[in-house]
Design brief:
heterodimer, A: D-Amino Acid Oxidase, Chain A, domain 2, six-stranded mixed sheet, 10 helices, globular, B: alpha/beta, seven-stranded mixed sheet
Chain lengths: ~400, ~700
């Protein structure tokens, strides 16, 4: 095997695999290094698979618009199924304050040509059959969003990248980055040393460790979230549903779920108190809390059979916005880290951005978006995103 | 209305009549009170319970043990495992056709949080190991909770109608499994320290050390100080063309239908696997009035006890060693089974195929420990012990001992000064051991008035004959030794009545002073309806080989025979030492078939209907991580979570020449069985 490449991508997950694909598509000889045994085996597969452009942050809006465009047409273009299911996102609303917040986002979302509108209670009940009607005011619906399979996407990207000559090495852990004269020269692993003038860090929750090896501080700290999936039922729910209300149990801030292309309901909640750290083992409190929330919103869901639960990490930045940028301190180094739990939906868009940063040395995104995801921004000062 | 029910059984007492009225796809049927839906359906002649959403493949029972999700039906609108859900009066059951619709039930239930239950010791599994441990702990004054997913404790002992091997003094050798189950259950019931939850499935062990238990009345989180995993074993599967047809299932599934529920689950049975499970399954089938067409074993010798195999051969069941099943065929269920000889590398030899009519094919190719929760507990560093098959797959007698030892160890850990008798460990090891060497049989010389002929030539842990003889004429130094008869037999028949292998018959030379005939007393475990009293029978020798003819002249009943009949068989004098019994069935005859059909790509993952070619294609594309194989093919993403197919996939990796070390195994996560979402949030008083 050759030991010299045009670019090395570290990490073969939500971000690393599309990055490798778009880099190799641009003609670069790419090596991907992954410490796990296969692509998509980190927190990528813990994602529930929702993909929406209807954020409030311009960078995320634009990146996800690209992801949606790319992934919704992937099967038509390549013949490979990535579990795309159109159906949009629905945010049911039961209180005035939330209605106001969500409506307040319409201007920025529409500025980027996103299809999102308010539907009344009847409209919401049609979108979400069986939803609790008492107090339901309606909600927002964005039909252009959808769902994808986190299980199918990374390997689809991996195989597409391989067809462009990319090399993947699994079960290989990076132990050092060689930087001389202010430029990155090589990546050393527990199995070898590979030379490349450009390196992309796409290591998700582990990014801080790569920063330490590089002598820079990458402010990514994981916190963990639990999710689960049911046995399949006949398709009945088109959109991915986000209930933004804090839970009556005092432990959740919101929860969300959808029916995937297999007919399974896949679900997750955001804990009120974060679980900081790398622990990915399931806790006993998740299912009882989640069940109460789901059944409160849609009573008929109580008959569905829960099949599996799991827990994955959100690689969080202090301001909740990713870092996608070239690093001036280390020539040839590109960071695509800190996706804050949205790496899967951002993936394809981020991959394209990375290819541009690496190959062209400049972003694809317009300046109003790139300033949000810059390396070296003041993480303490950034405002909290309205719709995370 | 078809009622495939066993009304008379030589060992089992009749069950209450089927009086519970329910419907399946609109047609009325009857269930026995408390009977599981799957058994009621089988009794009504229904073996296809639905069709899979992916390819419309017929679905039916597979494990009958709550482990897979093959037997799903819709009962009153809800998706349920038919093998774990009791039929209720008026229940409307429909087949599960594709992905079932979510019931449009919008009643808002009262919601609650699951109760947390703190216990010093939680025992998962109420089989021989779990109950034995509970008895030791309870007697040491320690509070114990036993959780078992079946309506009755006893585990697989409740399906074992045959007499057990082992040591009489230590673990009830000679007693039937069903009766050992009762003894253990009664002992547990007498201990106020031991609480038992039945119909309660431990579905997950979580990072915080809590065990999620799904009970019919709600979900509980049990917080134990110490945990014992005694969940037994599950049956290994095989992948071959037709392996997914209803009618192909595990021997344990069959025993549940036949021995627990007295359902006449088959007319013509074929068995794959000559271990004890397969051999005993065949014997149980015969007892239930089901014909056993044959049994194949891939190895040159059956792995199970020789006495079990001999017993079958003598009854006229063919056992083909160095053979395997090539395919099962049928439309909605098995109709034909094709076997072939295998070479030393277990490859089928062309031209050796034979096809037999059979409606059921039992897979008895070994057991794998149910150890998902055990591995999690160890990973989390909890105080955990294992006993029985969860620790090491072996006989139930070994499980009893490992349970006792684990119970005492746990008691000691919890500060109660109990001792573990020194011989327990070695006895447990003996009981766990595989059969030892087989010695050529020496035909006795005869010449006494009466004497036993013992056809027991393989070393197995067993001593009831020795313990039974009032004159101490049958000796063995250890329970692994072969019994040796010396002395002057009184003809009391105790040994004939007690030998669990039915390997002893009594020869009475004084029957005919003219020495033209002799009388044999042969143990027989079939009903009077199967005893050809006064008629001529075809006699067979040690291994089932034909000897000549004999005549059944009488049947002897004794209280200590324990539902075993002693058949008095008149045979020619010259055959008195050769005859070991008489056949009860005619030889199996293969059917004529045309050219071999083009075999279907066999199913490997039953839950998601993943076929072998899909897996092979991904392995050849470079996939080495089972998690990735799951993502690509949906292998093991179904209801059972890889319990059935993981081992099959490892085998395919081997076939493809991939070293075991290269393969990453799949991640196991909760839950180990599917649970309705509502149960997690059910208010405690809501018993709806």
């Amino acid at each position: 095997m050759p030991d010299t490449f045009d670019a090395i991508v570290v990490g073969a997950g939500s971000v690393g695999t599309p990055s490798a694909y778009y880099l190799s598509q641009r003609g670069l000889k790419v090596l991907v290094l992954e410490r796990r045994p296969a692509s998509g085996q980190g927190d990528n597969k813990a994602a529930i698979g929702g993909i929406r452009a209807t954020h409030s942050d311009p960078a995320k809006i634009l990146l996800c618009k690209r992801s949606l465009l790319e992934m919704s047409t992937w099967k038509e273009r390549t013949g490979v199924d990535v579990g795309w299911k159109p159906g949009g996102y629905a945010f049911p609303v039961y209180d005035e304050a939330l209605e106001k917040t969500l409506r307040g986002l319409f201007p920025i979302q529409r500025k980027y040509d996103l299809a999102i509108d308010w539907v009344d209670a009847n409209g919401m009940a049609e979108l979400v059959p069986g939803i609790e009607r008492r107090g339901l005011r309606g909600g927002t619906y964005s039909p252009g969003d959808g769902q994808l399979s986190p299980l199918k996407c990374p390997v689809a990207f991996e195989r597409a990248a391989r067809s462009h000559g990319a090399v993947f090495r699994f079960n290989e852990r990076v132990t050092a980055y060689e930087v001389t004269g202010g430029r990155i020269r090589a990546v050393v692993t527990d199995k070898g040393r590979y030379k490349a003038p450009r390196v992309v860090i796409a290591t998700g929750s582990d990014a801080a460790g790569d920063g330490a090896m590089l002598g820079i501080t990458i402010p990514v700290q994981p916190d963990s979230h639990e999710a689960g999936i049911t046995a399949p039922v006949a398709p009945f729910l088109k959109p991915l549903v986000v209930d933004m209300r804090p839970g009556a149990e005092g432990k959740t801030t919101n929860f969300y779920f959808g029916q995937n292309d297999e007919g399974q309901i896949i679900f997750c909640y955001t804990p009120k108190e974060l679980f900081i750290g790398f622990d990915r083992e399931s806790l006993s409190e998740f299912l009882p809390i989640l069940a109460a929330r789901m059944i409160t919103l849609i009573p008929r869901l109580r008959h569905i059979l829960v099949r599996r639960v799991w827990r994955g990490c959100y690689p969080m930045t202090p301001d909740g916005v990713p870092i996608i940028d070239n690093v001036p301190e280390v020539g040839g180094l590109t960071l695509a880290v800190g996706m804050c739990g949205q790496g899967f939906m951002l993936g394809a868009g981020v991959g394209q951005e990375v290819a541009s940063l690496v190959v062209d040395g400049k972003p694809l995104l317009p300046p109003e978006a790139t300033q949000r995801i810059r390396w070296g921004r003041d993480f303490g000062k950034a405002s909290k995103e309205a719709l995370k | 209305m078809t009622q495939n029910r066993i009304e008379r059984h030589p060992i089992l007492a009749p069950l209450p009549p089927a009086t519970v009225e329910l419907t399946f796809n609109g047609k009325p049927l009857l269930a026995r009170p408390g009977e599981m839906i799957s058994s009621a359906l089988f009794a009504a002649g229904i073996s296809t319970f639905g069709h899979h959403h992916r390819d419309n493949g017929p679905q039916g029972i597979f494990c009958v043990n709550g482990q897979c999700s093959q037997c799903m039906v819709i009962a009153d609108g809800r998706m349920v495992k038919s093998c774990m859900t009791a039929a209720l009066p008026g229940m409307r059951v429909t087949s599960c056709e594709g992905r079932p619709p979510l019931p449009l039930d919008d009643a808002v239930p009262a919601l609650g949080r699951p109760r947390e239950v703190e216990v010093p010791v939680l025992i998962l599994g109420g089989g021989p190991a779990g109950l034995s441990a509970a008895i030791e702990l309870g007697r040491a004054g320690i509070r114990v909770l036993v959780v078992d997913d079946k309506p009755e404790v006893g585990g697989k002992l409740t399906l074992q109608t045959h007499g057990f091997f082992g040591s009489v003094a230590d673990c009830w050798a000679g007693t039937r499994g069903i009766d050992i189950a009762r003894i253990l259950a009664d002992d547990v019931a007498a201990l106020p320290e031991v609480e038992v939850w039945t119909s309660a499935a431990a579905v997950g062990l979580f990072r915080d050390g809590k065990v999620g238990v799904a009970r019919p009345d709600g979900y509980r989180l049990v917080v134990p100080q110490a945990l014992l995993v005694a969940l037994g074993a599950r049956e290994k599967a095989l992948s071959f063309p037709g392996c997914d047809l209803p009618g192909v299932y595990g021997a344990g599934a069959f025993q549940t239908l036949v021995n627990r529920d007295l359902v006449h689950a088959s007319r013509k049975l074929f068995i794959l696997g000559g271990g004890n499970v397969g051999l005993i399954g065949a014997y149980h089938a015969l007892q239930a009035g089901i014909d056993v067409v044959g049994l194949v074993e891939a190895l040159p010798e059956c792995g199970g006890y020789k006495v079990h195999a001999d017993k079958l051969r003598r009854l006229g069941v063919p056992i083909w060693t160095s053979h395997t099943v090539l395919r099962a065929q049928g439309r909605e269920r098995v109709e034909r089974v094709t076997i072939a000889r295998v070479d030393e590398k277990f490859r089928p030899v062309p031209g050796t195929e034979h096809t037999f009519e059979a409606d059921t094919l039992l897979i008895a190719v070994g057991l794998a420990p149910v150890d998902e929760l055990l591995r999690k507990a160890r990973e989390y560093g909890l105080k955990v012990h294992a006993a029985g098959d969860s620790e090491e797959v072996a006989e139930a007698s070994a499980a009893i001992f490992s349970g006792r030892i684990a119970g005492r160890r746990m008691a000691r850990d919890l500060g109660v000064p109990v001792t573990i008798p020194e011989h327990w460990e070695s006895l447990a090891a003996t009981l766990r051991s595989r059969p030892g060497k087989t010695t050529p049989w020496e035909m006795p010389a005869g010449g006494e008035r009466v004497y036993p002929v013992i056809r027991c030539v393989q070393e197995i842990p067993c001593n009831p004959c020795s313990a039974a003889c009032p004159e101490k004429l049958i000796s063995m130094e250890t329970i692994m030794d072969l019994p040796r008869y010396t002395g002057k037999c009184l003809g009391c028949l105790s040994c004939v009545s007690r030998c669990p292998g039915l390997a002893i018959c009594l020869v009475c030379e004084d029957y005919d002073p003219k020495r033209e005939k002799a009388l044999l007393v042969v143990p027989f475990e079939f009903g009077d309806d199967r005893i050809p009293l006064g008629r001529e029978v075809k006699t067979v020798g040690f291994g089932g080989e034909s000897v000549g003819t004999g005549k059944v002249v009488a049947v002897r009943e004794r209280p200590d025979q324990d539902r075993r009949r002693l058949v008095m068989l008149e045979v020619p004098w010259s055959e008195r030492l050769k005859v070991a019994g008489f056949a009860i069935r005619e030889p199996s005859v293969p059917i004529e078939t045309g050219a071999a059909p083009r075999d279907e790509d066999p199913i490997v993952c039953r839950c998601e209907r993943v076929r072998k070619s899909e897996i092979v294609a991904e392995i050849r594309a470079g996939v080495r991580d089972l998690n990735q194989l799951k993502a690509l093919t949906r292998l093991s993403m179904g209801g059972c979570g890889g319990k059935t197919c993981t081992e099959l996939v490892r085998r395919i990796f081997r076939e493809e020449g991939v070293a075991q070390g290269e393969v990453t195994l799949g991640t196991v996560r909760p839950l180990v069985a599917e649970v309705p979402l509502g149960l997690f949030a059910q208010e405690e008083d809501d018993h709806a």
